[in-house]
Structure prediction request, 175 residues.
Amino acid sequence: MVFRLATGLAVALVMVAGQGAWAQQVSENQVAAKTDWAVFEEQDPKECWAVSAPKETVNTRDGRVVSVRRGEILLMAFFRPAAGVKGQLGFTGGYPFAGGSTVTLDVDGAQYELFTEGEWAWPASAADDGKIIAAMKRGSNAVLTARSARGTVTKDSFSLLGFTAALDEADKRCQ
Prediction:
């Protein structure tokens, strides 16, 4: 989990550095766009990732829809050849998740559990990454449900249109 966290933080730093550019769908390191997914590449260290922002976000507290401030909300799959990372999923909800909580990822009715630390969530193992990625390649929609440290339940819906093409592009660039 520590390695997965360190890798995720490296991606987070890259994403934060380009935060304003992401909002405009323009970035120096974006190398491709595949429908609802973008592909980014960094050289030092070599990292490539497919990433998307949600199409819809619903925030509730005590069963009522509420307005909340959140940072970037991103679902991604990344590759880091030097570290042997190939197709690792990561999700950032734009807020610190409740301590000890998990995030539920629903891909067209199939549910998976992601473990959290701070503002990031990942599958427990590379094998789980593989299962989820296979489902995402076949699917059309991914919904991530999580709980913030303040008790807000968030539900973020991502389109999977272009996911397979973006993932393949990121993989190819990080061979």
About this structure: The longest helix spans residues 2-17. The longest strand covers residues 85-92. Residues 2-173 form a domain with the Immunoglobulin-like fold (CATH 2.60.40.1880). Confidence is low (pLDDT under 50) at residues 1-27.
